[in-house]
Amino acid sequence: MEIHVGDEDESVEATVGDSVIIALPENGTTGYQWTVEPSGDEVEVLLNEYLPPDTAAPGAAGQRVVTLRAAHVGTASVGVRLQRLWEADPAERREVSITVRP
Fold first, then answer.
1. DSSP 8-state code for residue 28
2. What pLDDT shows up at residue 9?
3. What's the pLDDT tens digit per position in 61-97?
4. CA neighbours within 13 Å on the CB side: how many for 49?
5. Which position has the higher pLDDT, 35 or 8?
6. How confident is the model at residue 28, as a pLDDT?
7. Average pLDDT along the chain
8. Side-by-side strand order, sheet with 43-51
9. CA distance 63 to 37
10. Which of 29, 69, 80, 84 is deepest in the core (most CB within 10 A)?
């Protein structure tokens, strides 16, 4: 299951063992990076990678792709933040709620 996080928070359901992919546009040349942090142990991060843009155009955005695995029954809140590592407050923040079923 792939989620493209938009301007609003998201809620999804998964079954234990399912993968949930969060895909976000990211432009590393601006210094801003997405961080994805799940709370609890209902989901775990399997992969967190930046995919460069398909074009060589200056300033083109790539994509942050985070693969989560539904590990335990329950509901996880996954914080999604866009910020520069040296700044305290994120430029954008979202929450993804993942309900994991047996």
1. G
2. 75
3. 899 999 999 999 999 999 999 999 899 999 999 999 9
4. 7
5. 35
6. 80
7. 90
8. 2-4, 19-26, 62-70, 43-51
9. 17
10. 80
The β-bridge partners of 21 are 2, 67
Amino acid at residue number 97: S
One-letter amino acid at 26 equals E
The per-residue DSSP string of 58-78 comes to: TT--EEEEEEEEE-SSEEEEE
Delineate the domains of the chain, giving CATH numbers in brackets.
Answer: 2-101 (2.60.40.2020)
Q: Looking at residue 61, what is its pLDDT?
A: 87
| The pair of three-digit structure tokens given for residue 101, joined into one six-digit string | 């079923």
Each as own residue / partner, the long-range contacts of residues 46-51 (CB below 8 Å, 24 or more positions apart, any chain) are: 46/19, 50/26
Which pLDDT score is estimated for 5?
Answer: 65
CA distance 92 to 74: 26
